[in-house]
Design a protein that fits this description.
The chain is α+β, with helices and mostly antiparallel strands and about 350 residues long. The protein contains 11 helices and 14 strands. It has helices spanning about 1-25, 35-45, 80-90, 125-130, 140-160, 230-235, 240-255, 275, 285-290, 300-315, 325-335, and strands at about 35, 50-55, 55-65, 70-75, 105, 115-120, 135, 165, 175, 185, 190-195, 260, 265, 350. A 6-stranded mixed sheet has the order 1-5-6-4-3-2, with helices on both faces. Residues about 1-30, about 200-220 and about 350-353 have low confidence and may be disordered. It comes from Cucumis melo var. makuwa.
Length: about 350
C-alpha cells in the first residue's frame, strides 16, 4: 500500500513539474489564455459542431465571445497523446506570424488537451484545388500569393524563430484560407523544435527539447508530400519541409493532387527529366503542366518559374535543395513582392466562359 502511494505521489509530482515548466515557458512567449474545461464546454456548446477530425484529434466550432468564432482542437486521453499535446503547445507558444493560424489559448486541466485557435472561415487549399464545385476555379494570381505567403510562413519557422522549427506535415489540407484567400499554415502536431538543419543521433546528454540535435524523430508524413529521404532515414530535417513545399507548388500550378491513388503516382513524377535535373523548362512543357481548368488565364513566365523552383525543392538527394529563405528570394526575384490577396478576390466562375 505504501509503495502504491509512493508511485501515485511521484506521478503527480511529475505532472506538477511539467505544469511548472509550462508556466515558465508562457512567461517568455506570446500571450495565450489558459482556459478552464468549463470554458471549453461553453465555447463549443458542449462540442455540438464538429468541423474536422484526424487520427489523434477532433476539431469543434466555438465562440469565445459574441461574434468571435474559434476552432477548438481536442486531443484524446492517453499518455502518448498528452505528450503530443504538450509538444504542440510548447511550439504554438513560440509562434506569431500573419500566415500562421493564430493561437488563442489552451486547457490542460484534464487528460484530454484542448487547443483554441482563430477560426479561418474559407476552408483549406486542398478543398479549393480538388474538392471545390466544378464551376469554380482558384485564379492564378491567388495561387501565386498563396505560394509566396506559405514560403514566408515556413521561412519564419526555419530561420526567424528563436528555436528553429520543422513543421513536418506541410500539405494543402494544412493551409487554411481566410475570406481574402490569404494563407494560414496550421497543424503543428508533427512539428519539432530546436533544429539547426537536421536531427541526428546524438549522445543522451544532448536530448533535451531545446537541443539542436536530438535522437531520431519520427514525424508523421502524408502520401505524396513526405520527403523520400526522410522515409529512408527517419531523420527529420528542414529539407523535408522544403520538399513538401515543392509538392504544394506543383499542386498550385497543375491542379493535380500530391498522390493519385488510382495510378499509384506521386505528383513529382510528372516533372520533365531535364527540369528534375536542374535544367530549364520549355514554354510547351509549361503549357502542358499548368492546370487546364485555368483555361489559359495564367502568366507563362510565372508558371515556368514556379515549376523550376518546385523542381529545385524536391531534388534528390536533398543536399542541393535551396533553403526556404532562398526560395522566398527566388520568388521575389522572379515575380516581385507578391504580397497579399486584394480585398474582394473570389474564385473564377468557369460557367461564364
Amino acid at each position: 500500500m505504501g509503495l502504491l502511494r509512493f508511485f501515485r505521489v511521484k506521478r503527480k509530482s511529475k505532472v506538477a513539474d511539467k505544469k511548472t515548466i509550462l508556466d515558465a515557458q508562457i512567461q517568455h512567449s506570446f500571450f495565450a489564455t489558459r482556459f478552464r474545461w468549463t470554458d471549453i464546454e461553453t465555447f463549443t456548446k458542449n462540442f455540438s459542431t464538429l468541423v474536422g477530425s484526424g487520427g489523434f484529434s477532433t476539431v469543434y466550432l466555438a465562440r469565445t465571445a459574441p461574434g468571435m468564432a474559434a476552432a477548438v482542437k481536442i486531443l484524446g486521453a492517453s499518455e502518448r497523446l498528452n505528450r503530443m499535446f504538450r509538444q504542440e503547445l510548447d511550439i504554438l507558444l513560440q509562434l506569431r506570424h500573419r500566415n500562421i493560424v493564430n493561437f488563442v489559448g489552451y486547457c490542460d486541466e484534464r487528460d484530454e488537451g484542448a487547443l483554441v485557435f482563430e477560426y479561418v472561415p474559407n476552408g483549406n487549399l486542398q478543398e479549393k484545388l480538388h474538392r471545390r464545385p466544378a464551376s469554380t476555379v482558384l485564379p492564378w494570381k491567388i495561387r501565386l500569393v498563396i505560394a509566396f505567403q506559405l514560403a514566408q510562413a515556413i521561412e519564419y519557422l526555419h530561420e526567424k524563430c528563436s528555436l528553429q522549427i520543422v513543421h513536418g506535415d506541410i500539405k494543402s489540407s494544412n493551409i487554411l484560407l481566410d475570406e481574402q484567400f490569404n494563407c494560414k499554415l496550421c497543424d503543428f502536431g508533427s512539428a519539432k523544435m530546436g533544429f539547426s538543419s537536421a536531427v541526428g543521433n546524438p549522445s543522451s546528454s544532448s536530448s533535451s527539447p531545446s537541443s539542436p540535435f536530438r535522437a531520431k524523430q519520427l514525424m508523421m508524413g502524408s502520401p505524396g508530400y513526405t520527403d523520400p529521404q526522410y522515409l529512408r532515414t527517419g531523420i527529420a530535417s528542414k529539407k523535408n519541409d522544403v520538399y513538401s513545399f515543392g509538392v504544394v507548388l506543383l499542386e498550385l500550378v497543375t491542379g493535380k493532387e500530391a498522390f493519385c491513388s488510382e495510378k499509384g503516382q506521386i505528383l513529382t513524377s510528372i516533372l520533365p527529366p531535364t527540369v528534375r535535373d536542374g535544367g530549364g523548362i520549355k514554354p510547351s512543357e509549361v503549357a502542358e503542366l499548368v492546370d487546364p481548368k485555368l483555361r489559359g488565364d495564367f502568366n507563362g513566365d510565372e508558371a515556368g518559374a514556379l515549376i523550376t523552383i518546385a523542381a529545385a525543392c524536391v531534388r534528390q538527394p536533398p543536399a542541393p535543395r535551396p533553403t526556404i529563405g532562398g526560395v522566398v528570394e527566388m520568388i521575389r526575384e522572379k515575380m516581385g513582392n507578391v504580397g497579399e490577396v486584394k480585398r474582394g478576390s473570389k474564385l473564377l466562375d468557369v460557367g461564364r466562359w
